[in-house]
Amino acid sequence: MATFDEINVDISVVLGASEMPVHQLLRMGRGAVIDLDVNEDDDVEIYANSTLVARGQVVLLGERIGISVTEVLLRGPEFRAPRLDGPL
């Protein structure tokens, strides 16, 4: 039986979103700035395997950037995986 240490989860953090025409995107070069639809104090969204699981705040850790989790989103029974030790 596998242990939890052997299970990988893809974590993504979304700072914001923007929409623009493709021709504008293709003209962008190094140093271009994309304006996002968020303010500096807004929460970011944290996804695990493409599922929204939490929200958080960006924190600076020296020269690195981290995320402080501020809210864990609870899921109802319809989002729980089936039990493997009983009937499906």
List the helices and strands and how they pair.
Blueprint: E1 11-14, H1 22-27, E2 44-48, E3 51-61, E4 64-72
The strand line-up of the biggest sheet is 1-2-3-4
What is the helix/strand order?
EHEEE
Q: Pairing-aware structural class of the strands and helices?
A: mainly beta
CATH topology of the domain at 8-18 and 36-75: Surface presentation of antigens (SPOA)
Give the overall form: extended
Rg: 18 Å
For the secondary structure, the number of strands is: 4
- Percent helix: under 10%
Distance between the termini: 19 Å
* Uncertain residue ranges: none
Tell me which CATH architecture of the domain at 8-18 and 36-75 applies here. Roll
Strand % is: 25-35%
Give average pLDDT, whole number: 85
**Helix tally?**
1
Largest sheet: 4 strands, antiparallel
What would CATH call the class of the domain at 8-18 and 36-75?
Mainly Beta
CATH superfamily of the domain at 8-18 and 36-75: SpoA-like
GO cellular component, one term: plasma membrane
Subcellular location: Cell membrane
GO molecular function: cytoskeletal motor activity
Keywords: Cell membrane, Cell projection, Chemotaxis, Cilium, Flagellar rotation, Flagellum, Membrane
